[in-house]
Sequence to fold (358 residues):
Amino acid sequence: MFKKLDKIVERYEKLNELVSDSEIISKMDEWRAYTKELAEITPTVEKYLEYKKVISEQEELKEMIPLESDAEMKALMQEEFLVCKDKITNITDELKILLLPKDPNDDKNVIMEIRGGAGGDEANLFAYELYKLYIKYAEKNRWKTEDIEISTTELGGLKEAVFSISGKSCYAKLKYESGVHRVQRVPETESQGRVHTSTATVAVLPEVEDVEIKIDEKDLKVDTLRSSGAGGQHVNKTESCIRLTHLPTGIVVLCQDERSQTKNREKAMKVLKSRLYDFYQSQYDKEYSENRKSQVGTGDRSERIRTYNFPQGRVTDHRIGLTLHSIDNFMLGDIDEMVEALAIHDRELKLSAGFDEE
Fold:
C-alpha cells in the first residue's frame, strides 16, 4: 500500500509542475486533463501526509517518554502516544478506501431500462411503479430525466421504459439497481385475496462517449416507422419512429418519443452505444470472472436482487440481507439508506480482497 502511496505523491508533485507550466497552460485540453487528475489524487496525498505527520509525532513521543522524569508529564505523553496510535489506525483505514480503484463509470450519466417480467399485467403495473420510484429518486437528487422509449399497457402498466438520467454521481448511486426486482402483493383484480408474486427487470447502463464506442455504418440497419401509441393507435402519420439494428450483435433499439426523426435517431444511438458498451463489458467480465469477486452481485439482469413485500410493508435486498420496513416511503423514491448500504458493502468486499502491488 505504501509503495502505491509513494508513487501517487511523486505523480502529485509532477502534476503540480505541469499545471504551472506556461506551455501546458496554452494547451487547454491537456491542462484540463492534468488539473482533473491532480484534483482526483489530492485527497489521497493530503491524507498520506497527515499519516506521516502523526507517525513522526508518535516516533518523537516514543523517544521522549523514557527520558521524562516528571510522572504527570510522562502520563500525559503516554496518553498522547495512544491517541497517535488510534489516529494511525483510522487514517490507515481511510487511505485504504481512498486507494480503492474507482469505477471509471461512476461520474457518467445513466441509461435506465425497466421491463415487466413474469406475472402478466401485475408485472407491468409493478414495472411502472419502479419507473416512478426512480424518477422521484432522480428529482430528490436534482438529476435530469428524459424519456427515450415508453411502452405502456391498457391497464396503465409498463411493458418497457427506456430513459436517461443525468447528474452528479448518478451511475455511482444507481449501478446496484440492475437485476430482477420481485413484488409480492394482492393484485387489485384478485377476488380471493391471494398474494401473487411478479417480477420486473431493471438495467442500469452508463451513458458512453463517442470515443468509447465506435459504430461502423455498415454494421447498422436503420428503419423508419410510424410512431404508435398503446393499442396500436397512430400518434402521427409521419415516419418519425427510428429502429436501429446492430447487425454484428443483433441488438435492436426503437425510439419514437420525439416527433422529429433526427431527434429520435440521436436518442436511439445514445441507447445503442450504452447497450453495446454493456454487451462488450459483460463479455470481458465473463472472461475474467475471477476478478469480479469484489462486486455486489454479478449485475446480471437474470439475478433476483430485491423483494418488495407489500402485505408485510418491507423491502429486502438479498445481496446484503438488508430489510427496510418502510415500503411506502421506499416506493416514493426514499432509497438512500439502501443505496448507501450497498455501496458500503461493495467497498468492504473490495477492502477484504486486499491490494495488489503494482
Remarks:
- The chain has nine helices and eleven strands.
- Residues 30 and 41 are 17 Å apart (CA to CA).
- The first strand starts at residue 110 and ends at 116.
- The longest helix spans residues 28-64.
